[in-house]
Amino acid sequence: MNRRSFLKLSLAGSVAPLIIPSRLWGDQAPSRTLNLACIGIGGTGKRLTENLGGHNRTKVVALCDVDLKKNDVVESIQRFSDARVFDDFRVMFDEMADDIDAVTIATPDHSHFPIAMHAIKLGKHVYVEKPMANTFQECELLMLAAAKYGVVTQVGNQGFSGRNYEQHKLYAEAGFFDGVHTIVSYMNGDRRWHGWNDITGFPEGQDIPREMNWDVWHTTAEERPFSRRFHPGNWRSWYRYGGGAIGDWGPHILDTAHLFLNLGLPTKVELTHVQRHNSYIFPLESTIHFAFPEHNGRRPIDVYWYDGQRNRPPTPEEAVTDDDRNRGFGRQGRFLIGGKFTFHGGSHDRPLIVVPEARRREVHRELPRYGRGKSHHGSFVMASLGEDTTRSHFDVAAPLTQACCLGTIAQELNTSLDFDPKTKRFTNNDQANGLLKGPPPRKGWEHYYSV
Questions:
Q1: Range of the structural domain that residue 419 is part of
Q2: Following DSSP, what letter does each residue of 66-113 receive, concatenated?
Q3: pTM reported for the whole predicted model
Q4: Residue 330 carries which DSSP code?
Q5: Contacts of 433 (CB under 8 A, 6+ apart)
Q6: Does 286 reside within a domain?
Q7: Per-residue pLDDT tens over the stretch 182-211
Q8: Alpha-carbon distance 379 to 389, whole Å?
Q9: For residue 354, is it within any domain?
Protein backbone atom coordinates (compact mmCIF):
# COMPACT_ATOMS: atom_id res chain seq x y z
CA MET A 1 0.00 0.00 0.00
CA ASN A 2 1.41 3.38 -1.00
CA ARG A 3 1.21 6.47 1.20
CA ARG A 4 -1.68 8.06 -0.73
CA SER A 5 -3.81 4.90 -0.51
CA PHE A 6 -3.04 4.53 3.20
CA LEU A 7 -4.09 8.10 3.98
CA LYS A 8 -7.26 7.72 1.93
CA LEU A 9 -8.30 4.59 3.82
CA SER A 10 -7.37 6.15 7.15
CA LEU A 11 -9.51 9.22 6.55
CA ALA A 12 -12.39 6.98 5.56
CA GLY A 13 -12.10 5.14 8.89
CA SER A 14 -11.39 1.85 7.15
CA VAL A 15 -8.07 1.01 8.78
CA ALA A 16 -8.02 -0.87 12.10
CA PRO A 17 -5.61 0.39 14.80
CA LEU A 18 -2.16 -1.05 14.35
CA ILE A 19 -0.85 -3.20 17.22
CA ILE A 20 2.88 -2.67 17.33
CA PRO A 21 5.25 -4.33 19.83
CA SER A 22 5.76 -1.77 22.60
CA ARG A 23 9.53 -2.22 22.72
CA LEU A 24 9.77 -0.67 19.24
CA TRP A 25 8.31 2.59 20.49
CA GLY A 26 9.89 3.08 23.91
CA ASP A 27 8.02 5.45 26.24
CA GLN A 28 6.36 7.30 23.37
CA ALA A 29 4.41 4.33 22.01
CA PRO A 30 1.26 5.41 20.13
CA SER A 31 -0.20 1.97 20.92
CA ARG A 32 0.61 0.70 24.42
CA THR A 33 -0.62 -2.83 23.86
CA LEU A 34 1.42 -5.74 25.20
CA ASN A 35 1.83 -8.59 22.73
CA LEU A 36 1.58 -11.76 24.78
CA ALA A 37 2.64 -15.36 24.20
CA CYS A 38 1.10 -17.93 26.54
CA ILE A 39 3.03 -21.17 27.11
CA GLY A 40 1.11 -23.93 28.87
CA ILE A 41 -2.56 -23.14 28.24
CA GLY A 42 -4.43 -25.99 29.93
CA GLY A 43 -5.41 -26.33 33.60
CA THR A 44 -3.88 -23.49 35.59
CA GLY A 45 -2.45 -22.21 32.31
CA LYS A 46 -5.95 -21.84 30.87
CA ARG A 47 -6.97 -19.56 33.75
CA LEU A 48 -3.74 -17.61 33.49
CA THR A 49 -4.17 -17.17 29.74
CA GLU A 50 -7.74 -15.94 30.25
CA ASN A 51 -6.74 -13.52 33.01
CA LEU A 52 -3.83 -11.92 31.20
CA GLY A 53 -5.18 -12.35 27.72
CA GLY A 54 -8.43 -10.70 28.78
CA HIS A 55 -6.67 -7.57 30.05
CA ASN A 56 -7.57 -4.49 28.01
CA ARG A 57 -3.90 -3.71 27.40
CA THR A 58 -2.83 -7.11 26.03
CA LYS A 59 -3.16 -8.98 22.77
CA VAL A 60 -2.49 -12.73 22.71
CA VAL A 61 -0.42 -13.32 19.60
CA ALA A 62 0.87 -16.85 20.28
CA LEU A 63 -0.27 -19.96 22.18
CA CYS A 64 1.95 -22.92 22.96
CA ASP A 65 1.28 -26.30 24.56
CA VAL A 66 2.73 -29.78 24.10
CA ASP A 67 -0.73 -31.42 24.21
CA LEU A 68 -2.82 -29.55 21.68
CA LYS A 69 -5.76 -32.00 21.76
CA LYS A 70 -6.34 -31.77 25.50
CA ASN A 71 -9.84 -30.37 26.09
CA ASP A 72 -8.93 -27.25 28.07
CA VAL A 73 -6.07 -26.51 25.68
CA VAL A 74 -8.52 -26.64 22.78
CA GLU A 75 -10.77 -24.21 24.67
CA SER A 76 -7.90 -21.74 25.05
CA ILE A 77 -7.12 -21.98 21.35
CA GLN A 78 -10.75 -21.34 20.49
CA ARG A 79 -10.95 -18.39 22.89
CA PHE A 80 -7.93 -16.66 21.32
CA SER A 81 -8.46 -17.79 17.77
CA ASP A 82 -6.35 -15.03 16.21
CA ALA A 83 -3.17 -16.29 17.91
CA ARG A 84 -0.72 -18.57 16.20
CA VAL A 85 -0.44 -22.02 17.78
CA PHE A 86 2.71 -24.05 18.52
CA ASP A 87 3.67 -27.24 20.35
CA ASP A 88 7.33 -26.22 20.84
CA PHE A 89 8.23 -22.94 22.56
CA ARG A 90 11.60 -22.87 20.75
CA VAL A 91 9.91 -22.88 17.34
CA MET A 92 7.51 -20.19 18.56
CA PHE A 93 10.39 -17.91 19.52
CA ASP A 94 12.27 -18.69 16.30
CA GLU A 95 9.29 -17.63 14.20
CA MET A 96 7.70 -14.88 16.30
CA ALA A 97 10.30 -13.34 18.62
CA ASP A 98 9.93 -9.92 17.05
CA ASP A 99 6.16 -9.97 17.62
CA ILE A 100 6.25 -10.92 21.32
CA ASP A 101 6.71 -8.55 24.27
CA ALA A 102 5.99 -10.85 27.20
CA VAL A 103 5.25 -14.49 28.00
CA THR A 104 3.27 -16.45 30.55
CA ILE A 105 4.60 -19.84 31.65
CA ALA A 106 2.27 -22.38 33.26
CA THR A 107 3.96 -25.65 32.42
CA PRO A 108 5.21 -28.45 34.73
CA ASP A 109 7.62 -27.14 37.37
CA HIS A 110 10.71 -28.73 35.83
CA SER A 111 10.20 -26.85 32.56
CA HIS A 112 9.76 -23.36 34.04
CA PHE A 113 13.49 -22.71 33.96
CA PRO A 114 14.45 -23.33 30.30
CA ILE A 115 11.35 -21.57 28.95
CA ALA A 116 11.89 -18.55 31.19
CA MET A 117 15.59 -18.42 30.39
CA HIS A 118 14.89 -18.57 26.65
CA ALA A 119 12.42 -15.70 26.92
CA ILE A 120 14.63 -13.56 29.15
CA LYS A 121 17.61 -13.86 26.82
CA LEU A 122 15.38 -12.52 24.05
CA GLY A 123 14.43 -9.57 26.24
CA LYS A 124 10.86 -10.75 26.92
CA HIS A 125 9.07 -10.01 30.18
CA VAL A 126 8.18 -13.17 32.08
CA TYR A 127 5.23 -14.23 34.23
CA VAL A 128 5.92 -17.74 35.54
CA GLU A 129 3.67 -19.83 37.74
CA LYS A 130 4.96 -20.91 41.14
CA PRO A 131 7.26 -22.45 42.09
CA MET A 132 9.60 -20.20 40.15
CA ALA A 133 11.82 -23.19 39.23
CA ASN A 134 12.44 -26.75 40.37
CA THR A 135 16.01 -26.48 41.68
CA PHE A 136 18.01 -24.09 43.82
CA GLN A 137 20.49 -23.38 41.01
CA GLU A 138 17.78 -22.65 38.47
CA CYS A 139 16.39 -19.92 40.75
CA GLU A 140 19.87 -18.44 41.08
CA LEU A 141 20.43 -18.36 37.32
CA LEU A 142 17.03 -16.83 36.61
CA MET A 143 17.71 -14.02 39.09
CA LEU A 144 21.00 -13.26 37.38
CA ALA A 145 19.47 -13.40 33.90
CA ALA A 146 16.55 -11.11 34.77
CA ALA A 147 18.98 -8.53 36.16
CA LYS A 148 21.31 -8.80 33.19
CA TYR A 149 18.62 -8.40 30.52
CA GLY A 150 16.48 -5.92 32.44
CA VAL A 151 13.13 -7.63 32.02
CA VAL A 152 10.01 -7.47 34.19
CA THR A 153 9.27 -10.66 36.12
CA GLN A 154 6.40 -11.94 38.22
CA VAL A 155 5.83 -15.31 39.93
CA GLY A 156 2.29 -16.61 40.25
CA ASN A 157 1.66 -16.43 44.01
CA GLN A 158 -1.30 -14.15 43.39
CA GLY A 159 -1.99 -13.24 47.00
CA PHE A 160 1.30 -11.40 47.16
CA SER A 161 -0.32 -8.39 45.50
CA GLY A 162 -3.46 -8.39 47.62
CA ARG A 163 -4.61 -7.67 51.18
CA ASN A 164 -2.10 -10.12 52.64
CA TYR A 165 0.80 -8.01 51.35
CA GLU A 166 -0.73 -4.68 52.36
CA GLN A 167 -1.39 -5.93 55.89
CA HIS A 168 2.06 -7.47 56.40
CA LYS A 169 3.73 -4.28 55.22
CA LEU A 170 1.78 -2.12 57.69
CA TYR A 171 2.16 -4.55 60.56
CA ALA A 172 5.89 -4.87 59.98
CA GLU A 173 6.27 -1.07 59.95
CA ALA A 174 4.24 -0.87 63.18
CA GLY A 175 6.56 -3.38 64.87
CA PHE A 176 3.89 -6.04 65.35
CA PHE A 177 6.26 -8.77 64.13
CA ASP A 178 9.15 -7.74 66.39
CA GLY A 179 9.99 -10.71 68.56
CA VAL A 180 8.43 -13.39 66.35
CA HIS A 181 10.42 -16.54 67.00
CA THR A 182 8.25 -19.31 65.51
CA ILE A 183 6.15 -19.80 62.38
CA VAL A 184 4.03 -22.94 62.13
CA SER A 185 2.83 -23.54 58.55
CA TYR A 186 0.84 -26.40 57.11
CA MET A 187 -0.88 -27.82 54.05
CA ASN A 188 -3.12 -30.77 54.92
CA GLY A 189 -5.05 -31.21 51.70
CA ASP A 190 -5.10 -34.30 49.51
CA ARG A 191 -2.24 -34.62 47.03
CA ARG A 192 -2.10 -36.61 43.81
CA TRP A 193 0.45 -39.14 45.06
CA HIS A 194 -1.30 -39.98 48.33
CA GLY A 195 -2.94 -43.09 46.89
CA TRP A 196 0.17 -44.40 45.19
CA ASN A 197 1.41 -47.37 47.22
CA ASP A 198 3.23 -49.26 44.47
CA ILE A 199 6.03 -46.90 43.41
CA THR A 200 9.43 -48.61 43.22
CA GLY A 201 10.75 -46.73 40.19
CA PHE A 202 9.62 -44.63 37.26
CA PRO A 203 6.46 -46.00 35.59
CA GLU A 204 6.41 -48.20 32.52
CA GLY A 205 5.45 -46.66 29.21
CA GLN A 206 1.96 -46.11 27.79
CA ASP A 207 0.71 -44.85 24.44
CA ILE A 208 1.45 -41.16 23.93
CA PRO A 209 -1.71 -39.09 23.40
CA ARG A 210 -2.36 -38.20 19.78
CA GLU A 211 -0.41 -35.15 18.62
CA MET A 212 1.36 -34.68 21.95
CA ASN A 213 4.97 -33.45 21.80
CA TRP A 214 6.31 -35.74 24.55
CA ASP A 215 9.91 -34.87 23.69
CA VAL A 216 9.45 -31.16 24.41
CA TRP A 217 7.44 -31.94 27.58
CA HIS A 218 10.73 -33.08 29.16
CA THR A 219 12.71 -29.95 28.21
CA THR A 220 16.00 -30.33 30.13
CA ALA A 221 15.03 -33.53 32.00
CA GLU A 222 16.04 -37.03 31.02
CA GLU A 223 13.48 -38.43 28.59
CA ARG A 224 11.30 -41.26 29.87
CA PRO A 225 8.39 -43.23 28.38
CA PHE A 226 5.02 -41.52 28.53
CA SER A 227 2.79 -42.31 31.51
CA ARG A 228 -0.48 -40.96 32.90
CA ARG A 229 1.40 -40.77 36.19
CA PHE A 230 3.36 -37.91 34.62
CA HIS A 231 0.78 -36.17 32.43
CA PRO A 232 -1.57 -34.48 32.88
CA GLY A 233 -0.93 -32.91 36.27
CA ASN A 234 0.65 -35.86 38.05
CA TRP A 235 4.18 -34.57 37.39
CA ARG A 236 4.03 -32.67 40.72
CA SER A 237 4.23 -36.04 42.51
CA TRP A 238 7.82 -36.67 41.37
CA TYR A 239 11.00 -35.06 42.73
CA ARG A 240 12.41 -34.69 39.21
CA TYR A 241 9.39 -32.88 37.80
CA GLY A 242 7.66 -31.01 40.62
CA GLY A 243 7.98 -29.36 44.01
CA GLY A 244 5.48 -31.46 45.93
CA ALA A 245 3.22 -29.85 48.53
CA ILE A 246 5.77 -27.28 49.69
CA GLY A 247 6.65 -26.21 46.15
CA ASP A 248 2.97 -25.88 45.31
CA TRP A 249 1.70 -24.22 48.50
CA GLY A 250 4.77 -22.73 50.19
CA PRO A 251 4.62 -19.68 47.88
CA HIS A 252 0.96 -19.16 48.83
CA ILE A 253 1.41 -19.62 52.59
CA LEU A 254 4.91 -18.38 53.49
CA ASP A 255 5.42 -15.63 50.91
CA THR A 256 4.66 -12.47 52.90
CA ALA A 257 6.10 -13.84 56.14
CA HIS A 258 9.31 -14.71 54.32
CA LEU A 259 9.60 -11.20 52.88
CA PHE A 260 8.56 -9.01 55.80
CA LEU A 261 10.41 -11.02 58.45
CA ASN A 262 13.55 -11.03 56.27
CA LEU A 263 13.99 -14.79 56.52
CA GLY A 264 16.37 -15.31 53.60
CA LEU A 265 17.91 -18.81 53.62
CA PRO A 266 18.04 -21.23 56.57
CA THR A 267 21.07 -22.73 58.30
CA LYS A 268 19.34 -26.01 59.15
CA VAL A 269 16.71 -28.08 57.35
CA GLU A 270 15.59 -30.88 59.63
CA LEU A 271 13.20 -33.62 58.55
CA THR A 272 11.55 -34.29 61.90
CA HIS A 273 8.76 -36.58 60.67
CA VAL A 274 8.21 -38.59 57.51
CA GLN A 275 5.73 -41.29 56.55
CA ARG A 276 6.08 -43.59 53.58
CA HIS A 277 9.34 -42.17 52.27
CA ASN A 278 10.09 -42.95 48.64
CA SER A 279 13.12 -42.14 46.47
CA TYR A 280 10.94 -41.14 43.50
CA ILE A 281 7.79 -39.42 44.75
CA PHE A 282 7.07 -37.17 47.70
CA PRO A 283 6.20 -38.77 51.04
CA LEU A 284 2.69 -39.29 52.33
CA GLU A 285 3.49 -37.00 55.26
CA SER A 286 6.44 -34.87 56.31
CA THR A 287 7.34 -32.27 58.89
CA ILE A 288 10.29 -30.00 58.16
CA HIS A 289 11.99 -27.61 60.56
CA PHE A 290 13.81 -24.67 58.98
CA ALA A 291 16.15 -22.72 61.27
CA PHE A 292 16.58 -19.16 59.97
CA PRO A 293 19.46 -17.26 61.61
CA GLU A 294 19.49 -13.81 63.19
CA HIS A 295 19.37 -11.00 60.63
CA ASN A 296 20.11 -7.31 61.20
CA GLY A 297 19.09 -7.51 64.85
CA ARG A 298 16.06 -9.71 64.16
CA ARG A 299 16.16 -12.77 66.37
CA PRO A 300 16.47 -16.29 64.88
CA ILE A 301 13.18 -17.73 63.67
CA ASP A 302 12.10 -21.38 63.53
CA VAL A 303 9.73 -22.26 60.69
CA TYR A 304 7.86 -25.56 60.77
CA TRP A 305 6.19 -27.03 57.70
CA TYR A 306 3.58 -29.81 57.97
CA ASP A 307 2.16 -31.64 54.94
CA GLY A 308 -0.02 -34.75 54.66
CA GLN A 309 -3.75 -35.08 55.27
CA ARG A 310 -3.39 -36.37 58.83
CA ASN A 311 -0.16 -34.59 59.70
CA ARG A 312 -1.82 -31.60 61.30
CA PRO A 313 0.30 -29.33 63.45
CA PRO A 314 -0.53 -29.11 67.14
CA THR A 315 -2.44 -25.90 67.73
CA PRO A 316 -0.08 -23.48 69.51
CA GLU A 317 -1.08 -22.78 73.11
CA GLU A 318 -0.90 -19.07 72.35
CA ALA A 319 -3.63 -19.41 69.70
CA VAL A 320 -6.53 -20.77 71.74
CA THR A 321 -8.27 -20.54 75.07
CA ASP A 322 -10.42 -23.14 76.78
CA ASP A 323 -13.45 -21.52 75.15
CA ASP A 324 -12.26 -22.10 71.57
CA ARG A 325 -9.76 -24.97 71.86
CA ASN A 326 -11.63 -27.05 69.29
CA ARG A 327 -11.78 -24.28 66.76
CA GLY A 328 -10.64 -25.34 63.30
CA PHE A 329 -7.97 -23.41 61.42
CA GLY A 330 -8.49 -24.83 57.94
CA ARG A 331 -6.41 -27.19 55.82
CA GLN A 332 -3.68 -24.68 55.02
CA GLY A 333 -2.25 -21.70 56.81
CA ARG A 334 0.30 -20.45 59.32
CA PHE A 335 0.70 -19.18 62.87
CA LEU A 336 3.13 -16.36 63.77
CA ILE A 337 4.19 -16.64 67.40
CA GLY A 338 6.21 -14.35 69.63
CA GLY A 339 5.40 -10.86 68.36
CA LYS A 340 3.13 -8.27 69.91
CA PHE A 341 0.19 -10.56 69.07
CA THR A 342 -0.18 -14.18 68.01
CA PHE A 343 -1.48 -14.30 64.45
CA HIS A 344 -3.10 -16.91 62.25
CA GLY A 345 -3.31 -16.60 58.50
CA GLY A 346 -4.55 -18.68 55.60
CA SER A 347 -3.16 -18.74 52.08
CA HIS A 348 -3.12 -16.48 49.03
CA ASP A 349 -4.40 -12.99 49.93
CA ARG A 350 -6.22 -13.95 53.13
CA PRO A 351 -5.10 -11.54 55.87
CA LEU A 352 -3.84 -12.42 59.34
CA ILE A 353 -6.14 -12.43 62.34
CA VAL A 354 -5.18 -12.09 65.99
CA VAL A 355 -5.80 -15.28 67.98
CA PRO A 356 -7.35 -16.35 70.25
CA GLU A 357 -10.72 -14.85 69.44
CA ALA A 358 -11.09 -13.18 72.83
CA ARG A 359 -7.77 -11.39 72.32
CA ARG A 360 -8.79 -10.30 68.82
CA ARG A 361 -11.92 -8.63 70.17
CA GLU A 362 -9.82 -6.77 72.75
CA VAL A 363 -7.27 -5.29 70.34
CA HIS A 364 -8.97 -4.99 66.95
CA ARG A 365 -9.34 -1.21 67.26
CA GLU A 366 -5.58 -0.67 67.56
CA LEU A 367 -4.74 -2.63 64.42
CA PRO A 368 -3.91 -0.48 61.36
CA ARG A 369 -6.33 -0.50 58.45
CA TYR A 370 -4.91 -1.79 55.20
CA GLY A 371 -5.92 -1.61 51.56
CA ARG A 372 -7.02 -4.30 49.15
CA GLY A 373 -3.81 -4.19 47.15
CA LYS A 374 -3.66 -4.45 43.38
CA SER A 375 -4.11 -7.00 40.64
CA HIS A 376 -1.27 -9.50 40.47
CA HIS A 377 -1.90 -10.13 36.79
CA GLY A 378 -2.66 -6.53 35.97
CA SER A 379 0.46 -5.22 37.67
CA PHE A 380 2.57 -7.53 35.48
CA VAL A 381 0.91 -6.17 32.36
CA MET A 382 1.33 -2.56 33.43
CA ALA A 383 4.90 -3.10 34.64
CA SER A 384 5.77 -4.67 31.29
CA LEU A 385 4.42 -1.49 29.69
CA GLY A 386 6.54 0.64 32.03
CA GLU A 387 3.60 1.91 34.07
CA ASP A 388 3.81 -0.09 37.32
CA THR A 389 6.03 -2.47 39.31
CA THR A 390 5.60 -6.11 40.28
CA ARG A 391 5.82 -7.41 43.84
CA SER A 392 6.75 -11.06 43.36
CA HIS A 393 9.61 -10.42 40.97
CA PHE A 394 12.52 -12.86 40.85
CA ASP A 395 14.62 -11.09 43.49
CA VAL A 396 11.76 -11.61 45.96
CA ALA A 397 10.49 -15.00 44.77
CA ALA A 398 13.83 -16.75 44.30
CA PRO A 399 14.99 -16.89 47.97
CA LEU A 400 11.58 -18.19 49.06
CA THR A 401 11.58 -20.81 46.29
CA GLN A 402 15.15 -21.76 47.16
CA ALA A 403 14.21 -22.32 50.80
CA CYS A 404 11.41 -24.61 49.63
CA CYS A 405 13.88 -26.44 47.37
CA LEU A 406 16.08 -27.13 50.40
CA GLY A 407 13.04 -28.72 52.01
CA THR A 408 12.38 -30.99 49.03
CA ILE A 409 16.01 -32.14 49.10
CA ALA A 410 15.60 -33.17 52.75
CA GLN A 411 12.39 -35.01 51.79
CA GLU A 412 14.08 -36.85 48.92
CA LEU A 413 17.14 -37.89 50.92
CA ASN A 414 15.13 -38.58 54.09
CA THR A 415 17.64 -36.74 56.22
CA SER A 416 18.41 -33.49 58.02
CA LEU A 417 20.85 -31.01 56.55
CA ASP A 418 23.12 -28.13 57.56
CA PHE A 419 23.31 -25.24 55.12
CA ASP A 420 25.58 -22.21 54.76
CA PRO A 421 23.58 -19.27 53.34
CA LYS A 422 26.79 -17.41 52.41
CA THR A 423 28.37 -20.15 50.30
CA LYS A 424 24.95 -21.57 49.38
CA ARG A 425 26.16 -25.10 50.03
CA PHE A 426 25.31 -27.88 52.42
CA THR A 427 28.10 -28.48 54.89
CA ASN A 428 27.28 -32.07 55.85
CA ASN A 429 26.05 -33.85 52.72
CA ASP A 430 27.67 -33.99 49.27
CA GLN A 431 24.72 -35.80 47.73
CA ALA A 432 22.48 -32.95 48.81
CA ASN A 433 24.85 -30.47 47.17
CA GLY A 434 24.40 -32.37 43.92
CA LEU A 435 20.64 -31.91 44.20
CA LEU A 436 21.04 -28.13 44.44
CA LYS A 437 21.65 -28.40 40.69
CA GLY A 438 19.72 -31.57 39.99
CA PRO A 439 20.66 -34.13 37.33
CA PRO A 440 22.65 -32.86 34.33
CA PRO A 441 20.48 -31.53 31.49
CA ARG A 442 19.97 -33.87 28.58
CA LYS A 443 21.94 -33.42 25.41
CA GLY A 444 20.95 -30.38 23.39
CA TRP A 445 19.59 -28.43 26.38
CA GLU A 446 22.84 -27.56 28.17
CA HIS A 447 23.00 -24.00 26.84
CA TYR A 448 20.13 -22.87 29.06
CA TYR A 449 22.41 -23.09 32.10
CA SER A 450 24.58 -20.13 31.14
CA VAL A 451 23.66 -16.51 31.69
A1: 163-372+399-449
A2: SBTTSHHHHHHHHHTTTSEEES-HHHHHHHHGGG-SEEEE-S-HHHHH
A3: 0.92
A4: -
A5: 425, 426
A6: yes
A7: 999 999 999 999 999 999 999 999 999 988
A8: 6
A9: yes
